[in-house]
Amino acid sequence: MSIEAWYMDSSDEDQRKPHRLTPNQPASMEQLRQLGVFHWKLNADIYETDPELEQIRKDQGYSYMDIVAVEKDTLPHYEETLKMFFKEHLHLDDEIRYILDGRAYFDVRDKQDRWIRISMSKGDLITLPAGIYHRFTLDETNYTKAMRLFVGEPVWKAYNRPADDFEIRQKYLASLQES
């Protein structure tokens, strides 16, 4: 089972709305893979003992994990934090998120710098490669609970666009030329 993704319109309306182009222009799993974005669908109800999750963590070297709930009642500075997550940025390491409950969106830039919105729901595990410009937001339900996975020590540092001079960005762009 795959996730749903589509090209976005350029509306400044609420970031939590779907923002589909009219007519809708889906983005395929193959298009996402060419950008270095990978997805697994797991059983989030058994995440604590899931052998499939354990195998992915072992295979990918995801040694650190924590869980965060993104919702108004529990996340300090909720509105400011959501705005920060939605600023276009990149990381020096892969971003790995597993949705345990609720829904959210990851937006990534394609090779032509167009936004693709990826709809995430319970059971979706996604990896975004280091150096890809992206952003995150909730959908209109205003809630998600996610596992954050890292190789080694957790790093949450985001570099807002423009960050094209970073070596990891150049490496990412070079990888796109190969695919």
TrEMBL record:
Bound cofactor: record note? Binds either 1 Fe or Ni cation per monomer. Iron-binding promotes an acireductone dioxygenase reaction producing 2-keto-4-methylthiobutyrate, while nickel-binding promotes an acireductone dioxygenase reaction producing 3-(methylsulfanyl)propanoate.
Note the topology in the membrane.
Peripheral membrane protein
The protein depicted here goes by the name: Acireductone dioxygenase
Which residues make up the binding site for Ni(2+)?
A: H89, H91, E95, H134
Which InterPro entries would you find in this protein's record? ARD, ARD_euk, RmlC-like_jellyroll, RmlC_Cupin_sf
Record-linked CDD domains: cupin_ARD
Pathway the protein takes part in: Amino-acid biosynthesis; L-methionine biosynthesis via salvage pathway; L-methionine from S-methyl-5-thio-alpha-D-ribose 1-phosphate: step 5/6
